[in-house]
C-alpha cells in the first residue's frame, strides 16, 4: 500500500499502468478495505461532506471521540449532578444512580404567575401576585425532561456497560477532598483502554494489517521498532477525578 488508491487498491481497464502492486498485495488491500468498511458501518458515525452527523451541531470529529464517551454524558451532566442536589454528595456506585433513577424523587419549585417589571419577586410573593411551592417529582422524569434527545434511548439497566467491551463495565467511585479548608465532593468514572479496545484487539487485521500496513506504509518496524504497540498511545477514558475538583473528561 503506497497511500494512493489508484496505485494500490483500484484496477481500471483504461489505466492498467497505474497499478503499482502485485496481484497478491492487491487482493490483500481489497480484503482490508472491505473489512474497514464493515468496521465503519459497525463502529462509525455517518456524516455528510462537512463531517456533520444527523444530530444538529454535532460533528463526528471532536464532538464524538468514541462511543464510550457519549455514554458518559448522561452520568456526568444530569444523573450525578441531580443525585448530588438531592442527596448532598455524589453516588459512589452505578447501583445508587440506578436506584435514584428508578425510585428516587427530586424537589422542584412550582411557579405560578409572573413578576411585574415594577416589583421584585419577593414583593410579588408578599402581594400574592405570584406563588412558589416545592413539590416532589419522579427523578427519572425530571432528569430526562431537561434533555429529551439525550435520554430518548437511555437504558438505565445497561448505561454502565462499555461499548464494544463484551459486557465490561465502567468503574465509578466518589469521595471528598479538601481545597483551602473547604470540603469538595468529587467523583470519577473510568473505562480502561484494554476494556474499550477489547473487541478491536481481538481482531489481528486491526492490530497488524491496519496499524502496520495502512498507517505506517509497511515501515512500522523500521520507524517504530518491532515492539511498538499502538495501545501505548491510547489512554484510559476518565470522567471527573478523585484528586481534583473537576467533572470534565480527560478527552476535553
Would you spell out the secondary-structure blueprint of this structure?
Blueprint: H1 5-8, H2 23-43, H3 68-87, H4 94-103, E1 105-112, H5 121-126, E2 131-138, H6 139-146, E3 171-179, E4 182-191, H7 193-196, H8 198-201, H9 204-214, H10 220-224, E5 237-240
Description:
This protein has 252 residues and is α+β, with helices and mostly antiparallel strands. Helices cover 37% and strands 15% of the residues. The protein is built from 10 helices and 5 strands; from the N terminus they run ααααβαβαββααααβ. It has helices at 5-8, 23-43, 68-87, 94-103, 121-126, 139-146, 193-196, 198-201, 204-214, 220-224, and strands at 105-112, 131-138, 171-179, 182-191, 237-240. It has a 3-stranded antiparallel beta sheet with strand order 3-4-5. Strands 1-2 form a two-stranded antiparallel sheet. A hairpin with a 2-residue loop joins strand 3 (171-179) and strand 4. The model is unreliable at 209-220 (pLDDT under 50).
Summary of the model, kept short:
This protein is 37% helix and 15% strand. It has 252 residues and is α+β, with helices and mostly antiparallel strands.
Amino acid at each position: 500500500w503506497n497511500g494512493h488508491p489508484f496505485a494500490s487498491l483500484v484496477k481500471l481497464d483504461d489505466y492498467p499502468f497505474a497499478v503499482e502492486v502485485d496481484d497478491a498485495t492487491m487482493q490483500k488491500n481489497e480484503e482490508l478495505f472491505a473489512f474497514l468498511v464493515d468496521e465503519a458501518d459497525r463502529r462509525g458515525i455517518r456524516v455528510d461532506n462537512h463531517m456533520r452527523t444527523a444530530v444538529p451541531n454535532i460533528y463526528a470529529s471532536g464532538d464524538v471521540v468514541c462511543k464510550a464517551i457519549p455514554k458518559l454524558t448522561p452520568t456526568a451532566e444530569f444523573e450525578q449532578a441531580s443525585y448530588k442536589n438531592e442527596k448532598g454528595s455524589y453516588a459512589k456506585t452505578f447501583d445508587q444512580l440506578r436506584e435514584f433513577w428508578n425510585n428516587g424523587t427530586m424537589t422542584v419549585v412550582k411557579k405560578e404567575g409572573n413578576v411585574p417589571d415594577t416589583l421584585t419577586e419577593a414583593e410579588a410573593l408578599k402581594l400574592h401576585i405570584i406563588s412558589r411551592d416545592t413539590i416532589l417529582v419522579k427523578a427519572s422524569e425530571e432528569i430526562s425532561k431537561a434533555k429529551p434527545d439525550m435520554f430518548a434511548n437511555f437504558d438505565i439497566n445497561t448505561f454502565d456497560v462499555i461499548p464494544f467491551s463484551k459486557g465490561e463495565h465502567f468503574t465509578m467511585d466518589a469521595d471528598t477532598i479538601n481545597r483551602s479548608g473547604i470540603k469538595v465532593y468529587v467523583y470519577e468514572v473510568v473505562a480502561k483502554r484494554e476494556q474499550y479496545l477489547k473487541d478491536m484487539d481481538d481482531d489481528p487485521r486491526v492490530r497488524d494489517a491496519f496499524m502496520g500496513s495502512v498507517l505506517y506504509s509497511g515501515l512500522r518496524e523500521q520507524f517504530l521498532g518491532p515492539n511498538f504497540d499502538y495501545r501505548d498511545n491510547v489512554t484510559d477514558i476518565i470522567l471527573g477525578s478523585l484528586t481534583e475538583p473537576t467533572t470534565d473528561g480527560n478527552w476535553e
